Amino acid sequence: RLQRGEGDHLVNAVQVILDKKGLSNKDKFTFLDCTIGLGSDSMVVSYGYPQAQITGLEGALPIWLATSHGLAHYIHSEDSVTNALRRIKVNHDTFEHYLPNLPDNSIDIIYFDPMFEVPVEESPQFKPLRGHTVESHIDDKIMAQAMRVATYGVIIKERPFSSVFQNYPPHQWVGGKYSRIGYGVYMKELM
Q: What is the mean pLDDT of residues 104-133?
């Protein structure tokens, strides 16, 4: 979609944070994907923001091995996509362990894409992974840690009716009016 000049909701959510901080889409920033999984969301951010320094966390060893190997070795037919993959660093860790060890205001944007409370049945690529993933949830402690570590803000991807958005209403919602998933944007200065 980005190659065709079409929008992407995650890229738009990142841009909301950059705009509110008075930054352009050319400014450097750090991005922590707390739930990288197979890396698709980090790939989109890396492609959309080549200047971003992206780190991902994956707690499940088999998924971390596959994702880190693929990002380091897969060669796409387009160099811009291959370059986007190589810019992503992946650590074998969970956000519950990783975030408390980071200093205040040390990552510009923190991103969460936990396994959906109600799975999207039309996403067959995740069916084989269920049962092999680290099932993490966002609670008061994690939100407090994320906001402490974030310099600019936090983005959470979930279904609109999820308990995470009921418990932590976002400052801004990014997604289609009838979208089954969306992105809650939380600005640091508003928390």
A: 69
Q: How confident is the model at residue 128 (pLDDT cuts 50, 70, 90)?
A: low
pLDDT tens digits, 41-67: 999 999 999 999 999 999 999 999 999
Report how far residue 41's alpha carbon sits from residue 135's, in angstroms, rounded to the nearest whole number: 18
Q: How many C-beta atoms surround the C-beta of residue 114 within 10 A?
A: 21
pLDDT for residue 5 is more than 80: no
Cβ-proximal residues to 98 (8 Å cutoff; 6+ apart), any chain: 34, 57, 91
DSSP state letter for 161: T
| Three-state DSSP state, 118 | coil
Phi, psi at 37, each rounded to 5°? 55, -125
CB neighbours of residue 138 within 10 Å: 21
Assign domain 9-190 one CATH number from 3.40.50.150, 2.60.40.10, 3.30.390.30, 1.10.10.10.
3.40.50.150
Q: Identify the burial level of 129 via C-beta atoms within 10 angstroms of its C-beta, where 0-12 means exposed, 13-18 middle and 19 or more buried.
A: middle
- The structural domains of the chain, with segments of one domain joined by +, span 9-190
